[in-house]
Amino acid sequence: MSGVCSPEVLIEVRGLCVNYGLGDDAVRAVVDADLELRRGEVLGLAGESGSGKSTLAYAITRLLRPPGVITAGSARFAGPVSGAPLDGAPAGGAPVNGAPAGGAPVNGAPVSVASVGASSVNLLTAGQRELRGLRWNEIAVVLQSSMNALNPVLSIGTQFSDVLRAHRPDMSRAYRQARSGELLEMVGIPADRLSSYPHELSGGMRQRVMIATALALDPSVVIMDEPTTALDVVTQREILEELMALRDRLGFAVLFISHDLSLLAEIADSITVMYAGRLVERAGANAIFRAPRHPYSLGLLSSFPSLHGPRRVMDGIPGSPPDLRNMPSGCSFHPRCGYTFDRCRTDPPPVLLDLEAGTRAAACWLQDGRVAVPVELARPVPAPAEAERAGAAERAGAAERAGAAESVGAAGSEAPTEHAAAEPTRGRS
Ligand code: SF4
C-alpha cells in the first residue's frame, strides 16, 4: 500500500539523544537519531522491544516521562498547516530536559533546518502553550493499547464532544454532534453508536474510536505506537486498510511504530530500523523488505516464514537484545550477528553510511566498501513492477494456503500448522 510521497518534510529529527536517568548510571535509550517524515508518507519505525522506538516518538512529542531526559538534538516541525493557529506563544521556549535551545549542532553533526523551512518549530524547545497548540491540531498520537484510555462512564459521543470543545471552543453544539458522527463513520462505525459506552464496543471498535479521535482535528501528522498489537489479526488487517484509505483521502503523514517488519513492508513507504537505541538501517519499504543491507534487518525478516517455497525452520536472531546499562563493545549487535569480524568487536560502526545517493543507509562495517559484502546483504532491489508481481504471487499463495488451512480446520483433523499460524500476511487477509 504505497502512497505518493510529497518531498515536503513535516518533521525533521537531528542528533536526538535520550537517556533514562542521570550521570554515570544513565541508560542511553536513543543515540544520535536522525529521521525525516514527509507529508502524506507512512514511515515505519521497526525493532525489537527495548530498541528505543517508543522512546524516540515520545521524545519528539514531548510526552516522555521522568526519568527520561532529552540530552541533545532537535525535532523540527514544519509549522501549523491544518487546524487552528497556534496560540501565539513565542517559538523556541526555554530548553527542556537539558536539550540545547534552537537545535544547536550535536556531537559535531550539522543541524540543517532548510528542509522544514524557516517557520519551523523545534518541538524539543517549544513552550507548553505552543505545544498545546500543536498537539492534536497538527500532531496526534495513538498510543499502545490506547483503546483502554476511553473513559468507561462517558458515551463515545460525549468523549468526541469533549475533545472538540477543548480544542475548538467556538464550534457550535450542533456542529460538534455532526462532526462526531462523521468521525465515527470515517472509521467504519455507524453514527448511531455515538450513544454507546466503551464496554458496549468490541476491542477493534474501541481502537477505531481512538484513531477517529486522533483525526478529529485534521492533523498533518499521526504517530501510531503499535496501534493494533492487542487486536486479532483479522481486525488488525481491517483497521490498517481503513487507516491507509484515510491517509490517501486526508493526506496526513504517519510515523508507524511496530516490531513487525513484514507488517511495515505492507503499509509503509519507507522504513527505519532501530537496534539498542541506534538507527541501523533506513530505506524504502520495498528495498528493506526485498534487499536488506544490515544483518539485523535481515535477521528480523528471517524471523518470519516465507510465503512461497518449501517450509523451513525459522532462523530468527540468536540471543537477546543487549542490556543498555552494559552495552557490548564495538557494534552493539556483534554478539548476535552471524557476520561479525574483528573490527566489529572493537569499533562502533559509523552512524548510517549513505549507500545509494541518499536513498538508503546502514550502520554496519560490512557496508563501508573495505570488505566483501555477503550476497544476501547485497541483493539488487527489484524494480517496482517486479516487486508488485512478487507481492501479488505472495498474496495468491497466502490465500491458497489459508484456504487449505481452513479446509483442514473444517475437517477437524488438524490444527493449523505453526508455519500457517505464524504467517503474518496470510493472517491479516
Ligand atoms: Fe554485524 Fe559487524 Fe555489521 Fe555489526 S558491524 S552488524 S557485528 S557485520
Features:
single chain, 429 residues, alpha/beta, 4-stranded antiparallel sheet, 13 helices, disordered N terminus, disordered C terminus, binds iron/sulfur cluster
Give an overview of the whole structure:
- The chain has 429 residues and is of the alpha/beta class.
- It has a domain at 384-428.
- 31% of the residues lie in helices and 17% in strands.
- It has 13 helices and 12 strands.
- Strands 6-7-8-3-9-10-12-11 form an 8-stranded mixed sheet, with helices on both faces.
- β1 and β2 form a beta hairpin.
- α3 (156-167) crosses α4.
- The longest helix is centred in the C-terminal third of the chain and has 28 residues, at 384-411.
- It starts with 8 loop residues before the first strand and ends with a helix.
- The relative contact order is 0.12.
- Iron/sulfur cluster binds at residues 295, 331, 333-334, 337, 339-340, 344, 349, 364-366.
How would you summarize this macromolecular structure in one to three sentences?
With 429 residues, this protein is of the alpha/beta class.
